Amino acid sequence: MLTLSQALNSGLRRAMEDDDKVLLMGEDVGRLGGVFRVTDGLQKDFGEARVVDTTLAESGIIGTAIGLALRGYRPVCEIQFDGFVYPAFNQIVSQLAKMRARTGGRTALPVVVRIPVGGGIGAVEHHSESNEAYFAHTAGLRVVYCASPDDAHWMIRQALAGDDPVIFYEPKRRYWVKGEVTTAGPPLPLDRARTVRPGTDVTLLTYGGTVATCVAAAEAAAPEGRDIEVIDLRSISPLDVATIEESVRRTGRAVVVHEAPTFAGFGAEVVAQVTSRCFYSLEAPVERVGGFNLPYPPAKVEEEYLPDLDRILDAVDRVLAA
Amino acid sequence: MLTLSQALNSGLRRAMEDDDKVLLMGEDVGRLGGVFRVTDGLQKDFGEARVVDTTLAESGIIGTAIGLALRGYRPVCEIQFDGFVYPAFNQIVSQLAKMRARTGGRTALPVVVRIPVGGGIGAVEHHSESNEAYFAHTAGLRVVYCASPDDAHWMIRQALAGDDPVIFYEPKRRYWVKGEVTTAGPPLPLDRARTVRPGTDVTLLTYGGTVATCVAAAEAAAPEGRDIEVIDLRSISPLDVATIEESVRRTGRAVVVHEAPTFAGFGAEVVAQVTSRCFYSLEAPVERVGGFNLPYPPAKVEEEYLPDLDRILDAVDRVLAA
Amino acid sequence: MTTVDLADPPVTNPFAGTTGLPRTSEGWTQLVTPDGRLHPDVDADHDALGRLTRDLYRGMRLARRLDDEAFALQRQGELGLWLQCRGQEAAQVGSVAAVRADDYVFPSYREHAAALWRGIGPADLLRQWRGVAHSGWDPEPYSFHIYTLVLAAQLLHATGYALGVQRDGSDTVVVTYFGDGAASEGDASEAMNIAAVNDAPMVFFCQNNQWAISTPTSSQTRTPIHRRGAGFGLRGEWVDGNDVLAVYAVTSAVTEHARSGNGPAIVEATTYRMGGHSTSDDPTRYRTDDELETWRARDPLARVEALMRAEGWSDEAFLGEVQAEADEIADRTRRECLALAAPDLADAFATVLADVPQLLREERDAFVAYRASFLD
Amino acid sequence: MTTVDLADPPVTNPFAGTTGLPRTSEGWTQLVTPDGRLHPDVDADHDALGRLTRDLYRGMRLARRLDDEAFALQRQGELGLWLQCRGQEAAQVGSVAAVRADDYVFPSYREHAAALWRGIGPADLLRQWRGVAHSGWDPEPYSFHIYTLVLAAQLLHATGYALGVQRDGSDTVVVTYFGDGAASEGDASEAMNIAAVNDAPMVFFCQNNQWAISTPTSSQTRTPIHRRGAGFGLRGEWVDGNDVLAVYAVTSAVTEHARSGNGPAIVEATTYRMGGHSTSDDPTRYRTDDELETWRARDPLARVEALMRAEGWSDEAFLGEVQAEADEIADRTRRECLALAAPDLADAFATVLADVPQLLREERDAFVAYRASFLD
Ligand SMILES: Cc1ncc(C[n+]2csc(CCOP(=O)(O)OP(=O)(O)O)c2C)c(N)n1
Ligand SMILES: Cc1ncc(C[n+]2csc(CCOP(=O)(O)OP(=O)(O)O)c2C)c(N)n1
Ligand SMILES: [Mg+2]
Ligand SMILES: [Mg+2]
Question: Which ligand 1 atom is the nearest neighbour of the CA of C151?
Answer without folding.
Answer: 26
